[in-house]
Amino acid sequence: SHSIPVRSSETEDLRVDGRGCEDYRCVEVETDVVSNTSGSARVKLGHTDILVGVKAEMGTPKLEKPNEGYLEFFVDCSANATPEFEGRGGDDLGTEIANTLYRIFNNKSSIDLKSLCISPREHCWVLYVDVLLLECGGNLFDAISIAVKAALFNTRIPRVRVLEDEEGSKDIELSDDPYDCIRLSVENVPCIVTLCKIGYRHVVDATLQEEACSLASLLVSVTSKGVVTCMRKVGKGSLDPESIFEMMETGKRVGKVLHTSLQSVLHKEESLGPKRQKVGFLG
Amino acid sequence: MPGDHRRIRGPEESQPPQLYAADEGEAPAARDPTRLRPVYARAGLLSQAKGSAYLEAGGTKVLCAVSGPRQVEGGERGGGPAGAGGEAPAALRGRLLCDFRRAPFAGRRRRAPPGGGEERELALALQEALEPAVRLGRYPRAQLEVSALLLEDGGSALAAALTAAALALADAGVEMYDLVVGCGLSRAPEPAPTWLLDPTRLEEERAAAGLTVALMPVLNQVAGLLGSGEGGPTESWAEAVRLGLEGCQRLYPVLQQCLVRAARRRGAAAPP
């Protein structure tokens, strides 16, 4: 049972730019924009512009998890994004976003890490996910999680084989065919939905002005099946327990819709094949 | 050291022997999911800090100190509408700087400080949970420094640090709207995925998901929330949050008593 929130005349599900409380701005996603990476994606959400590059490199598995590969996140808040990021200003925000990304992927089901193992205890694939914040227009976490999911979908990891000769020394052989790669399943990769509390209502996908009005937000990371993998309260203010429950439900609802539209866009883009027109940075 | 032939050089990397031990199969004992471990709290124990608190819950030991308010150059901070109750305008409000540190011997493996990303994340979580409770508007252009030191990690370390930090702030005489009480939870792995209140370190290590909630008990407002893992559907997380908030309410009287005792001690020690 949900209680009907109190409505005042100005906040009746109508925001400054005409959207409803649960509507996203127009999202543009494009994958395979950077050629030196194993996978890349660019996402434009209103004025927020994110570029993610994934590089797959061979490394040693962690001691506690010898049969798995792992992901490493790095977020760079470029000084072009907003003037506050000049010099070292963007480092704190970058660390915060990277820590949140580690948290949302910190469970067994998001990404199949066992498929990244080459030979247990010796070699594994390490995916370095590098996020670049090109322009900051509000709602960074959502845009970054969409871009990370699209980049992982686009990632192509070359197939390697470990050959052992008679003396027991091992050799790594890379497949000759450049198109012979393994793809990752991004079905369970979660997306972040940030819900900002403004007055008595909460809004999804806040612009910079809306974020300035909001004292507290709830960040929920949802998978396409509605499973929540991370929850975090952000901001200087406090939240009512009932609002938290409402915001979680909204987050789950909105997250599921976001996932279905993202999956369909990614599959459609891939089906266009190598002949599709790339927009890149000039569009 | 170059050219030092007398010392036997050990390996560059070292690991604890437990990593190579066969899995003990030590399952945590079954227990009432809503039990809270007995808590020992004491405020006002450090002579050099403005306010301090020590909290012990089970095997978790946290020491927290508060210093300030210290004058800070604000930079270009404009005016703006003044807040209610004679508070400074938003741009001139005070700042809360939190620091979370783990002692190297706190966990199972030795972790040399600086701990890197995890300590920064927990420090940010501390700051976000304490800010709603502190009346920063009463300390314009000033900075309050809160530093939490985890001496031993016996489970629910962040929750204990939050509670100790709030006690230390109250002990320092910082104006607050309410105390902040923290509570940790963890979800046992399949089969029988129940949420356990105030987990021990063993339960936390085997958990599928973990959650820390911070509540302001009198105002009944959630000041902080941080959780991750395979918690399942939203109903499960909602149940966990409710359980955590209940745990925080139960902990509140202990903390009130601790502050009263500290105030009495300070009053008795003051020269007549």
Automatic annotation (TrEMBL), chain A:
Alphabetical UniProt keywords: Acetylation, Cytoplasm, Exosome, Nucleus, RNA-binding, rRNA processing
| InterPro entries linked to this entry | ExoRNase_PH_dom1, ExoRNase_PH_dom2, ExoRNase_PH_dom2_sf, Exosome_comp_Rrp42_subfam, PNPase/RNase_PH_dom_sf, Ribosomal_Su5_D2-typ_SF
GO CC annotations on file: cytoplasmic exosome (RNase complex); nuclear exosome (RNase complex); nucleolus
Where is this gene product found?
Cytoplasm; Nucleus, Nucleolus
Please verify whether the record's keywords include Lipid metabolism. no
Q: Which GO terms describe its molecular function?
A: mRNA 3'-UTR AU-rich region binding
The domain of life for this entry's organism is Eukaryota
Domain Exoribonuclease phosphorolytic: from-to ranges: 24-158, 188-253
Residue ranges spanning the membrane: these are none
Q: What is its main location?
A: cytoplasm
The answer to whether UniProt assigns keyword Nucleotidyltransferase to this entry is: no
Biological process terms from the Gene Ontology for this record are:
exonucleolytic trimming to generate mature 3'-end of 5.8S rRNA from tricistronic rRNA transcript (SSU-rRNA, 5.8S rRNA, LSU-rRNA); nuclear mRNA surveillance; nuclear polyadenylation-dependent rRNA catabolic process; rRNA catabolic process; TRAMP-dependent tRNA surveillance pathway; U1 snRNA 3'-end processing; U4 snRNA 3'-end processing; U5 snRNA 3'-end processing
Q: Which family does it belong to?
A: Belongs to the RNase PH family.
Task: Share what the entry says about its subunit structure, partners included.
Answer: Component of the RNA exosome core complex (Exo-9), composed of EXOSC1, EXOSC2, EXOSC3, EXOSC4, EXOSC5, EXOSC6, EXOSC7, EXOSC8 and EXOSC9; within the complex interacts with EXOSC2 and EXOSC4. The catalytically inactive RNA exosome core complex (Exo-9) associates with the catalytic subunit EXOSC10/RRP6. Exo-9 may associate with DIS3 to form the nucleolar exosome complex, or DIS3L to form the cytoplasmic exosome complex. Exo-9 is formed by a hexameric base ring consisting of the heterodimers EXOSC4-EXOSC9, EXOSC5-EXOSC8 and EXOSC6-EXOSC7, and a cap ring consisting of EXOSC1, EXOSC2 and EXOSC3.
Record-given protein name: Exosome component 7
Primary gene name: EXOSC7
UniProtKB/TrEMBL annotation, chain B:
The residue range of the signal peptide is none
Indicate where this protein is primarily found. cytoplasm
Q: Where is it located?
A: Cytoplasm; Nucleus, Nucleolus
* InterPro entries, alphabetized: ExoRNase_PH_dom1, ExoRNase_PH_dom2_sf, PNPase/RNase_PH_dom_sf, Ribosomal_Su5_D2-typ_SF, RNase_PH
GO biological process terms held by the UniProt record? DNA deamination; nuclear mRNA surveillance; poly(A)-dependent snoRNA 3'-end processing; rRNA catabolic process; rRNA processing; U4 snRNA 3'-end processing
GO molecular-function terms, A-Z: RNA binding
An example of a Gene Ontology cellular component annotation for this protein is: nuclear exosome (RNase complex)
So which domain of life are we looking at? Eukaryota
Q: Where is this region: Disordered?
A: 1-34
What's in the keyword line of the UniProt record?
Answer: Cytoplasm, Exosome, Nucleus, RNA-binding, rRNA processing
Matches recorded under Gene3D superfamilies: GHMP Kinase, N-terminal domain
Query: Residues in domain Exoribonuclease phosphorolytic?
Result: 36-175
Among Pfam families, the record links this protein to: RNase_PH
Q: Which family does it belong to?
A: Belongs to the RNase PH family.
Protein name, entry field = Exosome complex component MTR3
Organism name: Prolemur simus (Greater bamboo lemur)
